[in-house]
Fold this sequence. Notes:
Blueprint lengths: L5 E12 L6 E12 L3 E5 L6 H8 L9 E9 L10 H10 L1 E4 L3 H4 L6 H12 L4 H14 L5 H6 L7 H13 L5 E5 L7 H18 L2 E6 L2 H7 L2 E6 L2 E7 H6 L4 H8 L24 E15 L7 E15 L3 E5 L6 H9 L5 E7 L5 E3 L3 H4 L6 H12 L4 H14 L16 H13 L5 E5 L7 H18 L2 E6 L2 H7 L2 E6 L2 E7 H6 L4 H10 L2
Parallel strand pairs: 3-7, 3-8, 5-6, 6-7, 12-16, 12-17, 14-15, 15-16
Antiparallel strand pairs: 1-2, 1-4, 8-9, 10-11, 10-13, 17-18
Amino acid sequence: xxxxxxxxxxxxxxxxxxxxxxxxxxxxxxxxxxxxxxxxxxxxxxxxxxxxxxxxxxxxxxxxxxxxxxxxxxxxxxxxxxxxxxxxxxxxxxxxxxxxxxxxxxxxxxxxxxxxxxxxxxxxxxxxxxxxxxxxxxxxxxxxxxxxxxxxxxxxxxxxxxxxxxxxxxxxxxxxxxxxxxxxxxxxxxxxxxxxxxxxxxxxxxxxxxxxxxxxxxxxxxxxxxxxxxxxxxxxxxxxxxxxxxxxxxxxxxxxxxxxxxxxxxxxxxxxxxxxxxxxxxxxxxxxxxxxxxxxxxxxxxxxxxxxxxxxxxxxxxxxxxxxxxxxxxxxxxxxxxxxxxxxxxxxxxxxxxxxxxxxxxxxxxxxxxxxxxxxxxxxxxxxxxxxxxxxxxxxxxxxxxxxxxxxxxxxxxxxxxxxxxxxxxxxxxxxxxxxxxxxxxxxxxxxxxxxxxxxxxxxxxxxxxxxxxxxxxxxxxxxxxxxxxxxxxxxxxxxxxxxxxxxxxxxxxxxxxxxxxxxxxxxxxxx
Length: 528
């Protein structure tokens, strides 16, 4: 059988950064082949080199003076891709290679309309008239499922939802009907329902336009659903490559097996009874009670100088958490999850209703551990700060408590003297959990505490939360849009939609017998 001609062939790609005294090699002997119309997944954790490899394929690193690149890239009949003239490379990148990124809000120009941005490459690379460019842009917007194209065309990025902005990014990348679309973590920042829609859209584009797709992600579940071939990267090297079925169901490399085993699944271990006396449900202490919570925010219609309007964001929200429970709060962006958290913490004080909790100073673990920690202070100083403010402990007592809580979250005492920038993402999140626990609270809030972490680190942090929960008996309000994680960790779940709790119950009840259509939609999307 004659082998099909490849669209893209990368051979022995090596990438070094030259901005330090000793050059830093970040990609070693990278090889990749993509056929016309093929969907290939590139998987790896942060720092594995997957995005740098893709940027080189797109020609975005080849002319940088602080980067040394060796190897060969053959694309659509061009054999000298790495050494191509910048003008020719720019044209090729604008017409035959499209690229979409993780965060559409930062990728789109906030002061230009959507129409202007979708048409940009047409202005640069074609001689089409204004009317012809508009028609092509409208066609591209319709092609990504945006029905209200007249309004979208005239809108600015901030006037669109996250899912609409990502569709606009795809439309801009597809306006020339490129041969290759590079999608770099295109769904990571999106809700589960929007994520499923974007994945379906990428499949549709691939089948309709026969556009090859290089799909880069740390979410192996999504890669498995989209791609026929998969490459796994670790420390700048491809450690395994093959068909999606082979890589996911019969992985050969130990690192691949580790990644696959860390994928959150709709499976639950039989939870052991915690080592504290909870008593019956009626006897267990209620550590958080929220009753008839209503919250309004002021907003200005039409921008900074527009008329002030009041918008209700929470409607009669009521729930409680008992001692030792882990309760999941699930909903899409804008549903009001974080507003509930801020109100419980006392940050938002303009509300009606009742919030009663067992702790004078409830604690919270946030999504991004790096921005949660003071970059100019050591970990020891950060951990001691709440003890200085809320206890009468002397310096020796504070230091001992800081050492003890670090050990509890699996970090050595030497981390007390490090700064946040000297820790990995997983280590920083462990410090944030230690910070939330150092005052020994009866409950704390974890707001998307694992969503920014790689799959293996996510699994470690979830296991840590389980261990601490069994050891200490803290109740947790666990806020997430990842229903797989909630299923593994939580006892009960609250489903929030447009500021209202539409369904609540035990995890088994909600996941196996959902009553509300919105809950069913979330579960279908999570099982994509």
